[in-house]
Amino acid sequence: MAARSKTSASPAAPAAPAAEPSVPDLLIEGQPELGLRERKKLKTRIAIRRATYRLIKEQGYDATTIEQIAAAAEVSPSTVFRYFATKEDIVLSDEYDPVMVSVLMARPAGEPPLESLRFVIVQAIESFMETDYEELEQRTRLLVEVPALRARMLDSMTETTRLLAEPLAIRVGRAADDLEIRVFTAAFLSALLQTSLWWGERDCQDDLVELLNRTVDLFGSGFRL
Question: What's the pTM value of the predicted model, to 2 decimals?
Fold first, then answer.
């Protein structure tokens, strides 16, 4: 989905939940197991990212520097680099990846992998649109306009593929490094990226959730056109 923050999650064997969780229910900000230090780190990451988006909106991507971002977020440049390796990572990072793993593992046993991924992605996007629509739209426009961001996104997708492929493999009883699972997950994420770019190229005027569902349906049809 996006360049991952340094928060990570290790998938465990799925258990039958009393109620199916959704991404909004499991957002990092609301997880009670996070300690005070972890919450402070999360707030710092969010503050840095929001300052970055604010500056980019005012003066453009290329003109925005790490020093300016640090000043706007009221942290030092070294703190920015402690949380994000590059400016591209700031723009592309979010807190959804670990949450998507949790939601994926909690999907009903026997559900087709494609439908499990559909649920996870659509829930994540709907939640993002409810809470940070302007950021989602700005990020997508930047992906269309800035080659460095597209390159970083493609690079980060390898990590996201591994993150989602592992719980998906566990759910279907395959090895974590199963080739078919990895290819399936990578193809799925690549298709979603192209869908997002298509949405951005058209000025974000279409219904993004409908576009995502169309993309998943194309997978389900065996790519019959």
Answer: 0.79
